[in-house]
Every structure is written in C-alpha cells, then in structure tokens.
Amino acid sequence: MSLETKSGSSNLVTAVISCIFSLVIFATIRFYAGWITASQMNTIVGGFIGSWLFLFTLTAVSNVEMLVFGNDFQAKFIPEIVTCLTLAIVASGVVHRVCATTCFLFCIAALYFVNRISNKYHNKGSSAVEQASIRRGGAKKNK
C-alpha cells in the first residue's frame, strides 16, 4: 500500500466522521432550540455548539478537497472558511440571534487556534530547510 493511499483513506475517514458530527450537531441545535433559548447562559452555550459545527464542517470540506486535489491543498479564506462560517452562523441564528453572535466570536477564536496548530504542524519542514540554507550560506562566506 502506498503512502498516498494511506493518507487518502485517512482523509476519507476524517471527512465522513466530520460530516456525521456536523449533522449530529446541527440536529442537536435544532432539537434543543427551546432549551437554548430558555436563558442567557444557554444562548451562549448554543453559540459555542455552533462553533463546533463550524469546525467540523471546515474539517469535512478541507478533507474532501484534499482527497480531490491532493494532500498539499489547503483551505482558503474566501470559499471554504467563509462558507462554513456562514453555515454555522445561520444554523445558530435560526435558534436565537445571540447564538449567532456568540457563534461568530467562538468561531473566530477557534479559527485562530486551528491556524496556530496547523502552522506548527505543517511548517516544521520549511523551517528546517530555511535553517539549513542559512548555515550553508554562512559557511561559504567564512571560507
């Protein structure tokens, strides 16, 4: 089994699981709409749940794109992130307007941390290459 097949199947499994979680979270938001609108704290919790909808839909979309376009494909801001963010905010906004606002705030915070984790994980190789080229360049100047 080649490396591409392993990572492709991993992307497929992750995409399917993320889609299932997205559907479960959306159904949960709709099913417990009465409970979410019962108090102010519950509306904030509803926005937090909506931000998980954003994360799982973004994960699903990104993994499907990695299956189609290759493992080096990255989610961009305009098509993927804005679409998933809009979907999560609308799903939360159907329940309560405050849920939509808190969902937006939680999504921005989640996106910041996902970006930090992604940069830490995916930029390991590029920083090592940059450091190696700096060392070689310095060695040539000293000789």
Any key phrases for this structure?
143 residues; mainly alpha
Blueprint of the fold:
Layout lengths: L2 H29 L1 H4 L3 H30 L7 H19 L1 H26 L1 H19 L1
Helix pairs in contact: 1-3, 3-4, 3-5, 4-5
Quick structural summary:
With 143 residues, this protein is mainly alpha-helical.
Descriptive account of the structure:
This protein has helices spanning 3-31, 33-36, 40-69, 77-95, 97-122, 124-142. By secondary structure, the chain is mainly α. The longest helix is centred in the middle third of the chain and has 30 residues, at 40-69. The chain contains six helices and no strands.
The rounded distance between the terminal residues' Cα atoms is: 47 Å
The percentage of residues in β strands lies in under 5%
Radius of gyration: 20 Å
Number of strand elements: 0
Order of helices and strands: HHHHHH
Unreliable segments (pLDDT under 50, ≥5 consecutive)?
A: none
Most strands sheet: none
User: Average pLDDT value?
Assistant: 87
Morphology: elongated
The percentage helix is: over 70%
How many helices does DSSP assign? 6
